[in-house]
Design goal:
Seven copies of one chain form a homoheptamer.
Chain A: H1 6-12, E1 17-22, E2 27-35, E3 41-50, E4 53-63, E5 68-73
Antiparallel strand pairs in A: 1-2, 1-5, 2-3, 3-4
């Protein structure tokens, strides 16, 4: 296995804004405040988007890793 | 892994009101009375919401962690 | 982890009437006669409900934990 | 955990007629001839039911535990 | 656990004709040429059936155990 | 367990043309160039088929084992 | 097991352009910048395609391995 692992890219994104696509096709956007090796993670100032429209604002959310399709992280 | 883990955010929310989105798109809201590392948890004064409308009141419920999409926790 | 775990709430409900929502949206109601750490459980005098209407009566049933969404337990 | 476990209720039902609901909503009814801790099990004289109507007769079947929703067992 | 396990019933069916229902509702019928404890198995002279009609003939197939609903085995 | 295991049948098919049905009902056909015990595998000259029609050509693909329904292997 | 494993083919594709089909039928295309043994991986310059049309551009994304159907890798 290469030294640079995908999960490290998530850790590097701590305190940055990320977007997360869930299996139910909803997208969450917010500041990444914690994460673990299962991709469980918490966001602050979290918004739920549907087709790029803000559908709801939630403050802080804990998202369960096993239902995540992908996470957009800063370059 | 960073020291502050997502599951700790759930423990910090004990005795607070949380909202929980399940895979079947229903939302539960209630007071968090216990949780474990799989995100299994119990709520008291639990309400089931659908599109922000209260659909049912259940008293105490035990929610199975593996069917949770996300949990809204206090800031 | 806090000392009081969600699965303990299920054990405390032994011999009580509980309602169980399954992934296929059906609800079972009956007396909880046994449970294990995977939330596998048995009910006696079990009824299957659909939209609060009794749809079938089954006597004793064994419900597989991994298909449970939530369990309503006595306060 | 209590001494009496759900899986023991299944073992007690060996040689009895049981009904089994699968995730695809079909029900199998037959004589329970073996079972294991994953709820894998075999039935003899197995019938497949749909809405209480016998849809097919299969003789002996091996049912995979992870696709079982519930099992009706004798009281 | 009882001595006679469900997976043994599958081994006993080696070299016999079995029918296998998959999660996508298709049925495979063929001669069982190997199996393992996860219910992975191989068939020779395999046919795919849909509503009892032969839909395709495949020769030898390897079927992944975790997508099997049930297996009809000889009495 | 019998000595001849299903996964061995896959290894025996290395360098042969195989067809693979995925959970999303698409079929891949190509030359099997590697496989592991989870049925993860690689194909060269891979084609994606839909209802026996070639839908796309991909060159080399890595297919994740847990989404495979079945694999047609040479007799 | 043969010496050449499928996951090695993914490592060999590091720094190359790959296309990834997810369970929700979307395809991601981008430069593979990291991967692990669960097929978790990161892409840079990632585009999301639908029916070969670019639907969105994301910069860097982390894709969760368990929702991947297949990965097109360079020959």
């Amino acid at each position: 296995m290469p030294e640079k692992l995908p999960i490290k890219a998530l850790e590097t994104a701590l305190d940055d804004i990320v977007s997360i696509k869930l299996k139910d096709q909803r997208v969450f956007r917010g500041r990444l405040t914690s994460c673990d090796m299962y991709m469980n993670l918490t966001l602050s100032s979290a918004e739920e988007l549907e087709e790029d429209r803000v559908r709801a604002k939630y403050g802080s959310v804990l998202i369960r890793g096993n239902n995540i399709l992908w996470i957009q992280i800063p370059d």
